[in-house]
Amino acid sequence: MARATVTTNKGKFYCWLVFCPGCECVHGPNAGWTFNGDFEKPTFSPSILVKGADGDGAKTVCHSFVRDGQIQFLGDCTHELAGKTVDLPDEFNNDFNTADYVEQAEKLNFRK
Length: 112
Fold this sequence. Notes:
By secondary structure, this protein is mainly β. It has one domain (5-107). It contains 1 helix and 8 strands, in the order ββββββββα. The chain has a 5-stranded antiparallel beta sheet with strand order 4-5-6-7-8, with no helix packed on it. Strands 1-2-3 form a 3-stranded antiparallel beta sheet, covered by helices on one side. The chain is globular and about 35 Å long.
């Protein structure tokens, strides 16, 4: 079962997607990361660092390594999985609309 997927924009590679159980959303490493090519046990390098804010405006951090189908959350994460290593979900959430992800990321200038 796939634990990662790839998304495209206008027929070209955009990013890989993995579902983060700590943030309960996807993270999208792009071509700046290396990927082992295994969608069942993905490994990305370097670490994935996502900074944002919650609904109340409090700063959030998710910092992790994805290795061999597991996600290792580093100590600077602000969610309850900080310092823990867990399996990525068994199957990527197929209800997730990758086109919406690309559109939102572009509006926020996440990638060009």
